Prior knowledge:
The chain is mainly beta. The protein contains one helix and 28 strands.
Amino acid sequence: xxxxxxxxxxxxxxxxxxxxxxxxxxxxxxxxxxxxxxxxxxxxxxxxxxxxxxxxxxxxxxxxxxxxxxxxxxxxxxxxxxxxxxxxxxxxxxxxxxxxxxxxxxxxxxxxxxxxxxxxxxxxxxxxxxxxxxxxxxxxxxxxxxxxxxxxxxxxxxxxxxxxxxxxxxxxxxxxxxxxxxxxxxxxxxxxxxxxxxxxxxxxxxxxxxxxxxxxxxxxxxxxxxxxxxxxxxxxxxxxxxxxxxxxxxxxxxxxxxxxxxxxxxxxxxxxxxxxxxxxxxxxxxxxxxxxxxxxxxxxxxxxxxxxxxxxxxxxxxxxxxxxxxxxxxxxxxxxxxxxxxxxxxxxxxxxxxxxxx
Length: 358
């Protein structure tokens, strides 16, 4: 799919410098009616799930030319904050402010509640357990707990109390990373899920906005509200490779620098490079091993609230909408609300040659 959404030659030419090109980006048809909170691609086909503050989950099929078609939609009783596909692509989990998580069976189109918390469920992720016959579920809530669920049972199979409200959570293989209020980061080995393998305070000085696991599950990235990103390895032997860097900031004007929240971080499924996206309405691709920015892109016309690569790494989806980073006054009627599909072409996400992986 190298010619996705446009000619290969044009796309390759656009990647010859560090300023990226948005001209081949395509808008998703019939987007949600309110800010988009989460994106998820199926691991087995180009289906994109979108969760929104309009209380709905929508599933779209994406064609090779970038066109999209809505395939299914279901509702929660309050804003939906998280979506994730199971490994086989047959199930979709969604979680939200109605204090529950639902799973939609994509073969039947039926959705049902599978998890409950005492407060908003901020995150839900599928994972594979060696002792289970099917996918397991982990949910993180503002009630300061993480719960594990077997979809065949109504009660959680395990509960782990956290220090504070869960703000972000990600799973890769056996690695679960939980980011909470007060900048706590909890690392869990899902082979031993009822205890924290490691707990640390975020190296970033301000509130955690997002955590995202490396493609190879050896570590994770943290994004904060201060326009900064941290790269953290799980094992102490690799701690010399930990670092943080500034991003999503404007050029200083005198003594003042405008800083923006890092709203999402997504890792490329093949190359292990990653994206950051923020309230400033830009996204960037980075190579953590080379400590190098691969590409930066122009402003897209509004804050970017969520991002995700498809399974093949050929499409980068990003959602544009209001993230309340400037309060009530900036929430205007004409603020854009859409999902854009960016064709990943040429060397946009490829790591720098000759750099040894850590």
